Every structure is written in structure tokens, then in C-alpha cells.
């Protein structure tokens, strides 16, 4: 019974997480925080108390703490999203998407690079100046720079090109004061198309992920 209670709390997490769909951002992030906190609290309560009562007390405390943490992270990302959208508001090359508390800034590759090149074009620097300021202002995030290509050329060549482009953007952001310890770069080549249009598939994503302590 002791183990069953802890397992039941944890097993309920994916089911209740699915029920967050359709909620407002604030409701969703609060519920997610509550659920994750409850699961971790249940494990801790079982470990400390060794009984069902300890498990339930741990779950309750974890839920309360998790709800607060979920709201704090969500509010932080709300502010960062607003700042990022303002920073690129006049750009014709950028778009911003949000999935839960993860932000993705997508830039058309032809704004950053010439054909078959991983050298940043002069026009790329003004875009990166604005993004770098937002990243510096909101340091409690991790950053993943992703390179993507179209399907022209071989898979291997496109993978290497996308990696070089992602690294070029990462290096430019570091030169603009973004902490390199927060960053990683990765190339996906042609493996993640988003459209039948080659121009849409040639892109660089800057993915911003909150640090959850």
C-alpha cells in the first residue's frame, strides 16, 4: 500500500498534464507546477516517512511549492516573450512562437547567410544585437541555437552546413555578451522541414528554455 500510493501519485502526472490543454497560460503552468511538485513530494514523503501518511503529506507540500514555482517561471517567460517580441517587431525575417514556457525565435536563413555559406551577412548583426540584449536581460534561461537547411544537396553536406551556421550564430551571441555556458548549438540539416517551401525550411531557431531549480 505504501509503494502503491507513491506510484499512483506519479502515474497520474501524465494524465493530468494532458488536461492542461485548453487552459490559459497561467492556469496551465500553475497546474503543471502543482502536478510535478506533488510527484516529487510524494517520493520524498515516502522516503522520509516510509508510510502512506508521509507520502500524502509530501505530495501536498510538493504541490503547493510546485504551483508557486510554476507561476514564477511562467511569469518570467511572459516578460521575456514580451521583450523578445518587442525587439523583433520591425523585423521581416523573424517570428516568435511559444510552447508552454519555451520560446523559439525563428529567423530566415537568407537574412543571416548567403547561399551555401556559414558566414554571417552584415544584415544579421542588427538582428542579433536586439536578440542578445533580451538574452542578457533574462539570464535564467538556457539557449539552444538550431540550424536547418532545405533538401538540396546531400544529407551529410546539409548537416555540416547547418552545424556551421548554428555555431556562427552562437559565436555572434557570445561576442555580444551572452554567457557561453548557457548556450549550445546544433545542426539538423534537412531532417526537420516545416514546409514544402525551401525558403521556409532554411532557417535558424534560437530556442529559449527556462532554468528550473
TrEMBL record:
CDD domains found in the cross-reference section: OmpA_C-like
PROSITE patterns named in the record: OMPA_1, OMPA_2, PROKAR_LIPOPROTEIN
Signal peptide range: 1-18
Domain of life: Bacteria
Gene3D superfamilies linked: OmpA-like domain
Compartments (UniProt record): Cell outer membrane
Domain OmpA-like, first and last residues per copy: 100-212
InterPro entries per record: Bact_OuterMem_StrucFunc, Gly-zipper, OMP_bac, OmpA-like, OMPA-like_CS, OmpA-like_sf
One cellular-component annotation, GO: cell outer membrane
Keyword annotations from UniProtKB, A to Z: Cell outer membrane, Membrane, Signal
Entries under PANTHER family matching the protein: LIPOPROTEIN YIAD-RELATED, STATOR ELEMENT OF FLAGELLAR MOTOR COMPLEX
Protein name: OmpF
Amino acid at each position: 500500500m505504501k509503494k502503491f500510493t507513491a506510484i499512483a501519485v506519479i502515474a497520474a502526472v501524465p494524465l493530468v498534464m494532458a488536461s492542461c490543454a485548453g487552459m490559459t497560460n497561467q492556469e496551465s503552468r500553475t497546474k503543471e507546477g502543482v502536478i510535478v511538485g506533488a510527484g516529487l513530494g510524494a517520493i520524498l514523503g515516502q522516503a522520509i516517512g516510509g508510510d502512506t501518511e508521509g507520502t500524502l503529506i509530501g505530495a501536498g507540500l510538493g504541490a503547493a511549492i510546485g504551483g508557486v514555482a510554476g507561476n514564477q517561471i511562467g511569469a518570467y517567460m511572459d516578460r521575456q516573450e514580451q521583450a523578445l517580441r518587442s525587439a523583433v517587431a520591425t523585423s521581416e525575417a523573424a517570428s516568435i512562437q511559444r510552447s508552454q514556457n519555451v520560446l523559439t525565435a525563428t529567423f530566415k536563413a537568407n537574412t543571416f547567410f548567403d547561399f551555401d555559406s556559414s558566414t554571417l551577412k552584415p544584415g544579421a548583426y542588427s538582428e542579433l544585437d536586439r536578440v542578445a540584449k533580451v538574452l542578457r536581460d533574462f539570464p535564467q534561461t538556457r539557449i539552444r541555437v538550431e540550424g536547418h537547411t532545405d533538401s538540396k544537396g546531400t544529407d551529410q553536406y546539409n548537416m555540416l552546413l547547418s552545424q556551421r551556421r548554428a555555431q556562427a550564430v552562437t559565436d555572434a551571441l557570445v561576442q555580444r555578451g551572452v554567457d557561453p555556458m548557457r548556450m549550445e548549438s546544433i545542426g539538423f540539416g534537412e531532417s526537420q522541414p516545416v514546409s514544402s517551401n525551401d525558403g521556409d525550411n532554411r532557417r535558424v531557431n534560437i530556442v529559449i528554455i527556462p532554468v528550473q531549480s
